[in-house]
Amino acid sequence: MITAIFLVAALIALGGAVGIVLFRNPIASVLSLVAVMLALSVLFLLLSAQFIFAVQVIVYAGAVMVLFLFVIALLGPIRELPTRRLPRQGLLAMILAAAFAALLVSLLGNLRYHAPDSTTDLNAFGSVQNIAFGLFTTYLYPFELTSLLLLVAAVGAIYLSRERRS
Amino acid sequence: MPLDAGTLQIGGESIASSWFLILAALLFSIGSVGILVRRNPLVILVCIELMLNAVNLTLVTFSRQLQNLDGQLFALMSLTVAAAEAVVGLGILVDIFKLRELEDVDDLSELKG
């Protein structure tokens, strides 16, 4: 059952990822990215990361993707022409990425791990309490810096979208 | 200490953690193909989001395999950074489109050295 869920989610994720690259229409690309994100959120749930699952669905598949769709609606269609600068770019990109994927798969397929500390309670592993405990103790300063980053991003977005006086 | 090949016990079934890692590697590679092939700057940003998601899957898988929560916390941080990156990237894109007509990313090569 778990294996079947993994296989279905993995197939949806891979199909969606191929769709992002192949669809001509940017709206179709964004929607297939939403499919990839929902499939990945199922995988996060399998890996007992409940909080990451919720954040993935709400923040990523919800907020960020709606932002992309808004920008596409604002800008209108962009004509996509084949490149004039580099011949056979698609083929070169495929070869390089296939080589990179082969390297990654051969590295990741043969990993060996130390046996984990078996005292961890897996039912509460990725729960909000555990995440919050980690964020507010060990990683307090990175967490606060993240809020600063979000503030900078918000100020930057407002600055970029201001009315221009020529 | 003994080393094992990394099997996850999920709901009474065991599944190799390398499957999750290989899936993440494939998603990352497909995202990089998209960045190299597509000419539309919006779709390139979408492909960057795909690659960041693949990395998140790797972090969460290692976190579960080693039963150490740090990986999930890193994934949370990278999610925040990805959201900020999308906001600023799209803001820059809208600003560029306001300034001039753009056909594809090759038209943005003015700062090239």
Would you kindly provide a written description of the structure presented here, covering whatever features stand out?
The complex is a heterodimer of chains A (166) and B (113). Chain A is mostly helical and 166 residues long. Chain A has helices at residues 2-22, 26-46, 50-75, 89-108, 128-136, 140-160, and one strand spanning 113-114. The longest helix of chain A has 26 residues, at 50-75. Chain A is globular, with a radius of gyration of 21 Å. Chain B is built from three helices and three strands. Chain B has helices at 17-37, 41-66, 70-99, and strands at residues 3-4, 7-10, 13-16. In chain B, a hairpin with a 2-residue loop joins strand 2 and strand 3. In chain B, helix 1 (17-37) runs antiparallel to helix 2. Chains A and B meet through helix 1, helix 2, helix 3, helix 4 and strand 1 of A and strand 1, helix 1, helix 2 and helix 3 of B.
Brief overview:
Chain A is an all-alpha fold and 166 residues long. Chain A contains six helices and one strand. In chain B, 68% of the residues lie in helices and 9% in strands.
Q: Give the largest interface pair and sizes.
A: A-B, 91 and 82 residues
Helices of chain A, by number, come to 6
Helix content of chain B: 55-70%
Helix vs. strand class of chain B: mainly alpha
Number of helices of chain B: 3
Gyration radius of chain A (Cα, Å) is: 21 Å
How many beta-strand runs of chain A? Answer: 1
Entry keywords:
heterodimer; A: 166 residues; mainly alpha; B: 113 residues
Architecture blueprint of SSEs:
The complex is a heterodimer of chains A (166) and B (113).
Chain A: H1 2-22, H2 26-46, H3 50-75, H4 89-108, E1 113-114, H5 128-136, H6 140-160
Helix pairs in contact in A: 1-2, 2-3
Chain B: E1 3-4, E2 7-10, E3 13-16, H1 17-37, H2 41-66, H3 70-99
Antiparallel strand pairs in B: 2-3
Helix pairs in contact in B: 1-2, 2-3
